[in-house]
Amino acid sequence: MFRFLLGRLAVLIPTFIGVSIIAFSFIRLLPGDPVALLSGERVMSPERHAEISHQLGFDRPIVVQYLDYLWGILHGDFGTSIVTKKPVIDQFLELFPATVELSLCAIIFAVVVGIPAGVIAAIKRGSIFDQIIMGTALVGFSMPIFWWGLLLIIVVSGMLQWTPVSGRISLMFFFPSVTGFMLIDSLLSGQEGAFQSAFNHLVLPTIVLGTIPLAVIARQTRSAMLEVLSEDYVRTARAKGLPTFRVVGIHALRNAMIPVVTTIGLQIGVMLAGAILTETIFSWPGIGKWMVDSVFRRDYAVIQGGLLIIAAVIMLVNLAVDLMYGLINPRIRH
Amino acid sequence: MKKLTTLFAATALATLMAGSAWSKTFVYCSEGSPEGFDPGLYTAGTTFDAAAHTVYNRLLEFKKGTTETEPGLAESWTISDDGLEYTFKLRPGVKFQTTEFFTPSRELNADDVVFSLERQWKSDNPWHGYVTGGSWEYFAGMGLPDVLESIEKVDDMTVKIKLKRKEAPFLANLAMPFASIMSKEYADKLQAEGKMNQLNQMPLGTGPFAFVGYQQDAVIRYKAHPDYWGGKQKIDDLVFAITTDAAVRFQKLQAGECHLMPYPNAADVEAMKADPNLKVMEQAGLNVAYLAYNSTQPPFDKPEVRKALNKAINKQAIVDSVFQGQATPATNPIPPTMWSYDDNIADDTYEPEVAKKMLEDAGVKDLSMKVWAMPVARPYMLNARRAAELIQADFAKIGVKVEIISYEWAEYLEKSKAKDRDGAVILGWTGDNGDPDNFLDTLLGCDAVGGNNRAQWCNQEFDDLVTKAKEATDVAERTKLYQQAQAVFKKEAPWATLDHSLSIVPMRKNVEGFVQSPLGDFAFDGVDIVE
Transmembrane residues, as ranges (chain B) (predicted)? Predict the structure, then answer.
């Protein structure tokens, strides 16, 4: 296991360095003066330009600049927002819980609905159930998030008025953020109706963000189940006269879950990408919306730093998934 | 810890207010997050709406719904005979807001005015660089560092500003968001505590609403300033619910989650007008889109040729096709909501046959030209490529061949400035301070050739009129001069004026007292919700 971990890390470190080089070059390859881009000052006297250029270290050799940048990152310095003047990492930590809360809900939704749907489709292979489930999954998988989100808002919030349109909680409620998770904070606030409001606000974004992982998980579960169901040991179990529930639920599902777990893990990276659109549509104040807003504000420091942090998070999540996979399925370690 | 206490206090307050049936909350679905809360540092409308028009006031204000100025924190002013000395008498008894984070001990005085303006001007002022990387872009952009001679406190209620040269738009400049007046007492306290950055995060001024709190990219909260010099507002709480997507803003408005929204999608406007719970206000925006010929290059150096081409453009078709009707064809280089706009000037009528004849008379045959189309959508021109195609088709009818070209946006702006540029350029302008000078001199003056003057057009008669108007301080006199200048412009036709886009503001039917600003900003003083 230790060797396996080392091997994974050996891949991870060069990948991270590669990403950091891309992030580092990003600002220098953009059209326009990098000093102006990074300082946010558009009107500058030559003296002021030289001063800022020196502050930012642009007057030193490029390699030194890069090593300095890397050194800063290793010490948690991902730059400072041009707009808010706050360290990028602080803003990230402030907003990340909102994204985690949404992503967790979405993945739970995807798993809770996706796995049973896949199992049913596999057991009833070729039936009308199977066709409906797989057809829906295909539609869900190919649904553009932006369109799907707006459609749900227009129908569910606008026409039916079942859920609020956007935001994390009704603006009538106003309480301090303790954990950053609105579902928990609203309970802690002790305000009547706050939790209900937070929950209602979560429904649509959860569905929108969970749709693609749900479709992927359902399809993956179905094919893994089909494969396992045709194995000898399942046939043996059936032959022994075990009830279908035991055969499918214990013997087959457990083994079918191995590839599904990887799929779920991989979906986390996909979700972060999906969060950018979902959060923007639903005005959900998480890191996805933060990145989009930063692009509109031309806050290059945040774009540069934020992308790197997000990339690091995705890499760490993938590492964790790999390790988990290694734990579940020892064969993979070799 | 302090922050936490403040938050809990605010929570208690909010709970109390939520429980009270008397509190009236107005929710504005704003289109983006403010860049900060110091209006001097930024240039975006989102910042001005969130800070300048809520928390702050200025010496002069724009009269609601117009581009004319009226007394604000300055009750009156006098201008010396040579036009170089402005003496402002401050309004007595103006109270700053009392907030969780600061309790003022005195009323507005001259120190506050001197502080607010000087920090933007003097590089040795400790507040000049208090936000690293921040710059006083508007202050510099309006040319004030070169125009100002001195800003002095005469006595507690009098401020004297001396200029180096005559500058008619000066008073209008002082009504702009960047010239918001802050509390020097608050600033001094922050400086003493080493928390200068807070001035840009927790603003405090004399305006109609006091800042309560901001949750990045999500919500800004204000409460009515109870001692506001203009009287307490009818709404108790003002909330900016930041909603970047226009379709979502519309849904929230429909669901009653907000009372008013800016910048709707053109495609949604019909549905908004049809909704019985909503009402829609519209007026021509303070902008213009134009096609600028290069008046230094033959055959475009002849006014007859430019005039002929103008008569060949079907502007209504552009307005219909690009804006789905949400714009009006432009006659003058300034928008109709601007003072001094001349209603008597007749537009070039669309007559391709006449245009063809005029071209022949001018001796132009087999003309082929380039038309530059902007690569981005701007409020005054949503789709320049489409507009260029329509112009291409129009010109084809009179035998003029058009090649459409484009560049990346920054490059487009830069390249189109060149004096020897080839082709006519589609571009536009949105007004900054409601002064005609900001259009006529900035875009068409001789000094702007090789810069903002994309027609490279230097007409002595026009330039003299505009310069004279800049130096005159009497509004009636200036109006006359600007109207003459518009007549010269129309006769000489350095541009084809294309359109003024409409600014459209949908709101709930129960919103009362909102006045649309021709300057494009959103202010909520005077607004009420009736049940």
Answer: none
Question: DSSP code of B199?
Answer: G
Choose among B7, B241, B408: nearest Cβ to A176. Answer: B7
Secondary structure of residue A147 in the 3-state scheme: helix
Please give the Cα distance from B147 to B321 (Å, whole number): 44
Shortest CA gap B237–chain A (Å): 11
B283 has a pLDDT exceeding 60: yes
User: H or E stretch including B25?
Assistant: strand B25-28
Among A5-14, A62-71, A193-202, which range has the highest average pLDDT?
Answer: A193-202
Structure tokens at A72: 């800063």
> pTM surpassing 0.90?
no
Q: For A21-36, write each residue's pLDDT tens digit.
A: 988 887 788 777 777 7
Kindly report which listed range (A155-159, B112-116, B482-486) carries the lowest average pLDDT score: A155-159
Written in H, E and C, the secondary structure of chain A is: CHHHHHHHHHHHHHHHHHHHHHHHHHHHHCCCCHHHHHHCCCCCCHHHHHHHHHHCCCCCCHHHHHHHHHHHHHCCCCCECCCCCCEHHHHHHHHHHHHHHHHHHHHHHHHHHHHHHHHHHHHCCCCHHHHHHHHHHHHHHCCCHHHHHHHHHHHHHHHCCCCCCCCCCCCCCCCCCCCCCHHHHHHHHCCCCHHHHHHHHHHHHHHHHHHHHHHHHHHHHHHHHHHHHCCHHHHHHHHCCCCHHHHHHHHHHHHHHHHHHHHHHHHHHHHHHHHHHHHHHCCCCCHHHHHHHHHHHCCHHHHHHHHHHHHHHHHHHHHHHHHHHHHHCHHHHC
- Interface with B, mutate which of A30, A166, A185 (most B CBs under 10 A): A166
Element (H, E) at B227: none
CB-CB neighbors (< 8 A) of B197 in chain A: 85
Q: How far apart are the first and last CA of chain A?
A: 9
Q: How far is A163 from chain B (nearest CA, A)?
A: 10
Tell which A residues from 86 to 115 touch B, by Cβ distance under 8 Å: 91, 94-95
Q: Which residues of B touch A275 (CB under 8 A)?
A: none
A298 to chain B: nearest residue by CA? B35
| Contact state of A191 with B8 under an 8 Å Cβ cutoff | no
Which residue in chain B has the smallest CA separation from A286?
B217
Which of A29, A92, A165 best probes binding to B when mutated, by most B CB atoms within 10 angstroms?
A: A165
CB B344 within 8 A of CB B490: no
| Mean pLDDT (chain A, rounded) | 85
Q: pLDDT tens for residues B232-272?
A: 999 999 999 999 888 999 999 999 999 999 989 888 898 99
Q: Which of A171, A173, A179, A200 to substitute to test the interface with B, most B CBs within 10 Å?
A: A171
Alpha helices, H only, B162-302: 170-174, 184-192, 246-254, 269-274
Rounded Cα–Cα distance for residues A42 and A197 (Å): 43
ipTM of the complex: 0.75
Residues 144-163 of A with CB under 8 A from B: 150, 153-154, 157-158, 161
**Distance from the A251 Cα atom to the nearest Cα atom in chain B, whole angstroms:** 47
Q: Which residues contact B508 (CB under 8 A, 6 or more apart)?
A: B253, B256, B259, B260, B277, B278, B279, B529
* DSSP-H helix ranges across B246-337: 246-254, 269-274, 303-312, 315-323
